[in-house]
Amino acid sequence: AIFREEIANAHLEKETNQYFAVLTNLSPSSTYYAYVQASCGNDGSSPWIGTMFRTGCGTISNYPFYENFDSYEGLTTNTVNTTNHLLPHCWLYQNTGTSASYTGYPYITAASASNCHSEPNCIRFYMSTAATFGEQTAITPAFEDVNRLQISFIAKSGASYANTSRLAVGCVDDTSFVFLDTLSLTATYQEYTVDL
Prior knowledge:
Elements: E1 2-7, E2 10-15, E3 31-37, E4 49-54, E5 92-95, E6 107-110, H1 111-114, E7 121-124, E8 136-139, E9 150-155, E10 165-172, E11 177-185, E12 190-195
Antiparallel strand pairs: 1-2, 1-3, 3-4, 5-8, 6-7, 9-12, 10-11
C-alpha cells in the first residue's frame, strides 16, 4: 500500500507492505488528508481512498497570541441548542446549566446576531439569575510559561444584567480552575486586562 499525506498542495508518499504507516513530524492542531492505494502488481492499483484527520492540540508558545473568532463561521441567529458549542479547535467549554434552551453556550456567533464589538464574530455567553442557567466556561488551549502572560479582551453585559454580571478569569491546572480575578461587566464594551 502507498500512504500519501497532503500538505498545502505537496505530498509525502510512503510505500509499505504493512496495513499501517506511521506519519512523523506533523504539526499540532493541524488538519491533514491521508490517502491509501493498494498496489496490485501487474493488475495495476486500486483507486485512492482518503480521510481527513486533525492532530492533537499543542501548547501555544508563539506570542502574542490573538483570537478574535473571525476565522470561524459564527451562528447567524441566537437559536442555541445542545449541539452548538461552536468554539475554535482545541478550546474546551463547560456549561453547568440544566436549562435545555441554553446548554449550547458559550459559542461563536455572528455580529449580526449578537451585537459583537467587532465584525464578523464574537464569543457569546448567557447569564441569568435563574439557577438552571448555571456557569459557563470557555477554556483556551494550554500556554507555555503562563506566569509571565496577560490576557486582554473586550466584553460587556446584556443591558438587563448590567452591573450585576460577573466574569471570572483564571487558569486551569491539572486538577482545578484557579481564580485570578472577577470582573464586573457593564452594558458598554470595555477592555479588560488580567495578569496570569
